[in-house]
């Protein structure tokens, strides 16, 4: 089955994958007839609502007005903020079955014209005792966008992510640098340039730091306007 969409991954947790995915979804929903979203693996402190266990999943669905069964959008949710593998171990649950997640992906890929899929944490976040997020992306053979930030250390994290993708045959559409301060230091200001220079991957957007933002149409427009996608 041919993959139709993009997988949004991060160099770390809390870099803004949900914001970027939801914003791109809002933008694409205006030109894609049947647009779908997924977050195959999610964890959190507690279930978010009766309809959605994951807050991130609720945000993604709301951004494009998607009304889909939660298990198709989010096959796995664990109410503890850690990797899925650690979550299943600590909670005494069965480990993540990548084939089950793949079944849900294939359903979504078949029933929607284009998919935006949000990852969890970084590429090597363990899903079970033998597989990471990287393995799932390889299974579905989908192009990725990497979300990072301009903080000190991000060049290293971004280069590691890029090298791992390329070494595993994963195509990279571009890099988004999120949370750029209003008054950046000279280091923060030049981080996107050095990321491009060192990875040979285009930075397709630099998103400003948004203090106390709401996941709203205004925010989605502001973010998607500065991403070349």
Automatic annotation (TrEMBL):
InterPro entries: DTB_synth_BioD, P-loop_NTPase. Its cofactor is Mg(2+). ATP binds at residues 14-19, 56, 118-121, 178-179, 208-210. The keyword Magnesium applies. Keywords: ATP-binding, Biotin biosynthesis, Cytoplasm, Ligase, Magnesium, Metal-binding, Nucleotide-binding. It is an enzyme of class 6 (ligase). It is found in: Cytoplasm. Substrate binds at residue 43. One of its GO terms (molecular function) is magnesium ion binding. The active site is at residue 39. GO terms for biological process: biotin biosynthetic process. It catalyses: (7R,8S)-7,8-diammoniononanoate + CO2 + ATP = (4R,5S)-dethiobiotin + ADP + phosphate + 3 H(+). One of its GO terms (cellular component) is cytosol. Mg(2+) binds at residues 18, 56, 118. Its EC number is 6.3.3.3. Pathway: Cofactor biosynthesis; biotin biosynthesis; biotin from 7,8-diaminononanoate: step 1/2. Homodimer. Belongs to the dethiobiotin synthetase family. Catalyzes a mechanistically unusual reaction, the ATP-dependent insertion of CO2 between the N7 and N8 nitrogen atoms of 7,8-diaminopelargonic acid (DAPA, also called 7,8-diammoniononanoate) to form a ureido ring. This is ATP-dependent dethiobiotin synthetase BioD. It comes from Candidatus Nitrosocosmicus franklandianus.
């Amino acid at each position: 089955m041919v993959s139709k969409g993009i997988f949004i991954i991060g160099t770390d947790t809390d870099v803004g994958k949900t914001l970027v995915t939801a914003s791109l979804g809002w933008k694409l929903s205006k030109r894609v007839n049947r647009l779908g979203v997924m977050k195959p693996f999610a964890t959190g402190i507690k279930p978010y609502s009766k309809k959605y266990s994951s807050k991130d999943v609720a945000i993604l669905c709301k951004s494009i007005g998607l009304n889909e069964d939660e298990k198709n959008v989010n096959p796995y949710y664990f109410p503890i903020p850690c990797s899925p593998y650690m979550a299943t171990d600590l909670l005494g649950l069965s480990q993540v079955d990548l084939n089950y997640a793949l079944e849900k992906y294939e359903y979504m890929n078949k029933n929607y014209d284009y998919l935006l899929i949000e990852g969890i944490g970084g590429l090597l976040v363990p899903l079970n005792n033998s597989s990471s997020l990287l393995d799932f992306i390889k299974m579905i053979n989908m192009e990725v966008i990497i979300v990072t930030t301009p903080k000190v250390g991000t060049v290293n994290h971004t280069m590691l992510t890029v090298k791992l993708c390329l070494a595993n045959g994963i195509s990279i559409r571009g890099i988004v640098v999120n949370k750029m301060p209003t008054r950046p230091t000279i280091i923060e200001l030049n981080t996107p340039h050095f990321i491009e220079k060192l990875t040979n991957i285009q930075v397709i957007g630099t998103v400003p730091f948004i203090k106390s933002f709401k996941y709203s149409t205004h925010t989605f427009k502001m973010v998607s306007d500065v991403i070349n996608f």
